């Protein structure tokens, strides 16, 4: 695997953007416990993608992608709760949840690629074409 190749992955780009969006959405949140949990989960997604892609083998990469996928589920749950308790406006929250679902699906596909279940060519919608 190439150094910093994670930066070419659309799933890393989208999850990084999602983390920024979570920070923006919670800018004025006074529930510091929830805010801390949500920002940690959001940051964990692109961080685990990056860490996995910097590992030496596809098996190690897949392990960290599973961590990222778990964090996306954790974040979606926290967004649901934030909507219910009035911390996040419902329309904004549903958009964030949809993005976590799409990221999770992309991670699932990338995990299958890393584990050899799917050919590398199937990654076209996950990673930008290599030049």
Shape: elongated
Rg is: 15 Å
- Give me the strand/helix succession: HHHH
Report low-confidence residues grouped into runs of 5 or more: none
The CATH topology annotation reads as de novo design (two linked rop proteins)
Strand portion, in percent?
under 5%
Give the rounded overall mean pLDDT. Answer: 90
How many structural domains? Answer: 1
Number of helices: 4
Our measurement of the CA-to-CA distance between the termini, rounded to an integer number of angstroms, reads: 15 Å
CATH class, named Mainly Alpha
Portion of residues within helices: 55-70%
The major β-sheet equals:
none
- Look at the helices and sheets and give the structural class: mainly alpha
CATH architecture label name: Up-down Bundle
The overall strand count is 0
CATH homology superfamily name: 23S rRNA-intervening sequence
Task: Provide a descriptive summary of the structure in words.
By secondary structure, this protein is mainly alpha-helical. The protein has a single domain, classed as 23S rRNA-intervening sequence (de novo design (two linked rop proteins), Up-down Bundle), CATH 1.20.1440. Helix 2 packs antiparallel against helix 3 and helix 3 runs antiparallel to helix 4. The longest helix has 27 residues. The relative contact order is 0.17. The model has no long low-confidence stretch (mean pLDDT 90).
Kindly summarize this structure in a few lines.
Pfam families: 23S_rRNA_IVP. This is S23 ribosomal. The chain has 131 residues and is mostly helical.
């Amino acid at each position: 695997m190439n150094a910093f190749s994670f930066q070419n992955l659309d799933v890393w780009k989208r999850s990084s953007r999602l983390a920024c969006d979570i920070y923006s959405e919670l800018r004025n949140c006074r529930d510091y416990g929830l805010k801390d949990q949500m920002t940690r989960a959001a940051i964990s997604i692109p961080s685990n993608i990056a860490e996995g892609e910097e590992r030496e083998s596809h098996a190690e990469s897949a392990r960290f992608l599973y961590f990222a996928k778990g964090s996306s589920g954790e974040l979606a749950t926290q967004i649901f709760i934030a909507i219910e308790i009035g911390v996040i406006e419902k329309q904004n929250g549903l958009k964030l949840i949809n993005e976590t679902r799409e990221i999770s699906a992309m991670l699932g596909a990338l995990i299958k690629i890393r584990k050899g279940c799917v050919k590398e060519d199937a990654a076209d919608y996950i990673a930008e074409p290599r030049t």
